[in-house]
Automatic annotation (TrEMBL):
GO terms for molecular function: heme binding; iron ion binding; monooxygenase activity; oxidoreductase activity, acting on paired donors, with incorporation or reduction of molecular oxygen. This is Cytochrome P450. PANTHER family: BIFUNCTIONAL ALBAFLAVENONE MONOOXYGENASE_TERPENE SYNTHASE, CYTOCHROME P450 FAMILY 4. Belongs to the cytochrome P450 family. Heme binds at C402. The lineage of its organism: Bacteria, Bacillati, Actinomycetota, Actinomycetes, Kitasatosporales.
Length: 453
């Protein structure tokens, strides 16, 4: 295990990642097998330099260096080519805004995620999870990815807009969101920026889906303003009510629009991917699955779970935490330096790109013993205290830490308990599954057979 030393007294190991080519650098390795390539890098140094084309980018592999990047949000600001390409889609919301504006935005959006409001959103979660768990037929295979995406889309849409229009919104979001997420990723990884301008069917589908999502959000905002019926307990009401303590300012309709789009894109596929991986891992680990069933039976005694059960569903939460360790949906995110700085004794010029990869940290044997094994019990309090500080970051850290972390954990715990209370999810022998490192670390289609318990 790595030992904690004061950063100033530590001798940090720097390295250039092996395998670079003269012009492309490591772009081909990153393009072909990003997970394997990135996960091999901590063995070379605490701070590893890669070349993506001519551009140097830096990957901190040691938790203390990752932490320095995450907490110094003014110097390590949001940025990089991926964020630039996301702006036409996300506008200027929490993910795309720069440091100074982000602080203001976060003050305004945070009240929508206070504990009392999560309790209200949990009613939507309870209902949607119960409906999902009763909709399946015994022994008829389902695509778990598809089902989990439908579930998280329904939960998020109805937590955002609790109006009569919600059923229409759910259907629109379920249709449009996967197309937008896929298209956004294709554009993000296109180094030429030309792909989006070609007259391709995929581009037309993307433009259409994005237009429909934008229209939907505008209609919801208009509807809310026309009804003028105060706090409906949903996210949209909280965004309209938000007032900045420091300046007294509120959000314009356009700002609310951008926050809603950001929440849809950040909150649905992430949670759905993590839930899909959880069912996949449980299907291969009968002991963890049996412990889940035992806990759910003991806590719920056959009824559907409610918000008040969440604290008692401790093993269920450990199962989800362990799935987030092995397959963190936000497997890679970026920062760009706003001025010259030093990281681990290495000088970084202004506008340097820094990669943060929870996947790399979570699979490092120096941080997590036997990192490839699915072991929910590593999160038992007596064992979790030995996990190196700042090495587990499925929700990121610092001032840009996921605003939906409690929302996502609550939703996932209720979904796992509701489904595990009724079904055993049996894997289909021979099913091959390969992590797809795209916008989220998704599993692709995953067919499993629900068996009544
Ligand atoms: C298991 C589910 C989730 C995972 C693994 C996850 C992961 C993350 C991570 C790692 C970040 C930080 C990215 C960075 O620093 O650049 C982030 C940010 C964010 N997430 Fe999540 N997220 C999840 C669920 C959600 C949900 C349910 C919502 C909303 C309903 C949400 C909304 C956001 C937003 C708005 C941000 C930007 C926050 C900011 O910059 O202030 N996420 N998420």
């Amino acid at each position: 295990m790595r030992t904690a030393q004061h950063p100033a007294t530590r001798h940090w190991r720097h390295a250039l990642a092996p395998g670079g080519l003269p012009l492309a650098g490591h772009a081909l390795l990153m393009g072909r097998k990003p997970l394997q390539f990135l996960a091999s890098l901590p063995a070379h140094g605490d701070l590893v330099e890669l070349r993506l084309g001519p551009r140097p980018v830096f990957l901190p592999c040691h938790p203390e260096l990752v932490q320095q990047v995450l907490v110094n949000a003014r110097i390590y600001d949001t940025g990089g080519p991926v964020k630039e390409k996301a702006k036409p889609i996300l506008g200027n919301g929490l993910i795309t805004s720069d440091w100074a504006d982000h602080r203001r935005q976060r003050r305004l959006v945070q009240p929508a995620f206070q504990a009392a409001r999560i309790a209200k959103y949990a009613e939507v979660m309870e209902e949607a999870c119960a409906a999902e768990s009763t909709a399946w037929s015994a022994r008829r295979p389902i695509d778990v990815s598809h089902e989990m995406l439908a579930l998280t889309a329904r939960v998020t849409a109805r937590a955002l807009f609790s109006t009569d229009m919600a059923p229409h919104a759910v259907a629109e979001i379920q249709h449009c969101l996967p197309i937008v997420v896929e298209g956004a990723y294709r554009q993000a990884i296109d180094p030429t920026g030309l792909l989006a301008r070609l007259p391709l069917a995929a581009n037309r589908r993307f433009d259409d889906a994005l237009r429909r999502l934008n229209q939907l959000i505008d209609r919801m905002i208009d509807d809310y303003k026309a009804a003028d019926d105060g706090d409906r307990g949903d996210v949209l009401s909280a965004l309209f009510a938000a007032q900045d303590d420091e300046t007294g300012g509120t959000m314009s309709d356009q700002e609310i629009h951008d926050q809603v789009m950001t929440l849809l894109l950040a909150g649905i596929e992430t949670t759905a991917s993590a839930l899909t991986w959880t069912w996949f891992l449980l299907g291969r680990n009968p002991r963890a699955e049996a412990a889940l069933h035992a806990e759910v039976d003991e806590v719920l005694g056959g009824r559907a779970p409610v918000y008040a059960d969440v604290p008692r569903l401790a093993h269920t939460q450990r199962v989800f935490s362990e799935a987030l360790r092995l397959f963190p949906p936000a497997w890679l995110f970026t920062r760009t330096t706003t001025e010259a700085t030093e990281l681990g004794g290495r000088r970084l010029p202004p506008a340097s790109d820094v990669l943060i990869s929870p996947y790399v940290m979570h699979r490092d044997p120096a941080l997590f013993p036997d990192p490839e094994s699915f072991d929910p019990d590593r999160w038992l309090p007596e064992r979790a205290k030995d996990v190196a500080r700042n090495s587990y970051l499925p929700f990121g850290g610092g001032s840009r830490k996921c605003i939906g972390d409690v929302f996502g954990m609550t939703e996932a715990t209720l979904a796992l308990a509701a489904i595990a209370g009724r079904w055993r999810m049996r894997p289909i022998p021979g099913t091959k599954i390969r992590p797809r490192p795209q916008m989220s670390l998704t599993a692709g289609p995953l067919r499993m057979i629900p068996e009544p318990r």
